[in-house]
Amino acid sequence: MKILDASFVISAVRSEQYPTDGLPEIALAGRSNVGKSSLINKMMLRKNLARASSQPGKTQQLNYYLVNNEIYLVDFPGYGYAKVSKARREQFGQMVESYVREREVLRLQLLVVDVRHDPTKDDQLMYEWLKHYDIPMVVVATKADKIPRSRWDKHLKAIRTTLQMGASDKVVLFSSETGQGRDELWSIIYESISA
Ligand code: GDP
C-alpha cells in the first residue's frame, strides 16, 4: 500500500467535530498499551504521527488520521486502564457507543489485542457489543514478533475461543516491529470501503 499522504486531523471530543466530508472511516479499539498507536503509525508508515497518550485512558477523544485523502483511521481511547475514574469510563462508553451506533461512514472496526495474552474481559465486552450492533469487524492480534512463530497458531486459537469468534470472522496477525500483517490489513480495509 503506497502512502502518498498521512496526517493527523483532529482529536474530537464532540461529535460536531467529526469530519463532514463523507470519507470512509476505519475505527480502532483496544485496551491501553496494546499497541494501537504503533499499529496506526506502521499502517501509515510514519514514525510518530499517532502517539499513545502519556497518561493512558485520560483523554477521552477520538483521534482522526487521514490517509491518502481517502480514508480516516479513527483511534478510540484505550480502555481498561485501572486508574480511570468511573465518570470517565462512562464518558468513554457514551462517546464510543454513539459513534459506533450513529456514524454512517464507519466501514470497519478493528479490535486490537495482544497476541500473547488471552483477550481481557473488556475485549470480550467490546467484541460482543460490536457484534450486537452488527459492525463489520476484524480482530488484529499485534506484537506477533514477541512470540516464536511456532506458537502463533496456538495463540490465535486461544483468542478465537475466548472471544467466541465465528468461523468466518477474521483475525490478522500483526507486528508493528516487522510490518507483518500490514499488507493483509490494508487489503481488508480496502475491501471494506469498496463493498
Ligand atoms: P497504545 O497505548 O495501544 O497506543 O500502545 P503503543 O502503541 O504505545 O505500544 C505500547 C508499547 O508496546 C510500546 O512500548 C510499543 O513500542 C510496544 N509495541 C507496540 N506494538 C508492538 C509490536 O508489534 N511489537 C513489539 N515488539 N512491541 C510493540
UniProtKB/TrEMBL annotation:
Coiled-coil ranges from the UniProt annotation: none
Location of the EngB-type G domain: 22-195
Cofactor(s) this protein requires: Mg(2+)
Keyword terms of this UniProt record: Cell cycle, Cell division, GTP-binding, Magnesium, Metal-binding, Nucleotide-binding, Septation
Alphabetized Gene3D superfamilies for the sequence: P-loop containing nucleotide triphosphate hydrolases
Domain of life: Bacteria
KW Chloroplast (keyword) present: no
Segments crossing the lipid bilayer: none
Function: Necessary for normal cell division and for the maintenance of normal septation.
Annotated protein name in UniProt: Probable GTP-binding protein EngB
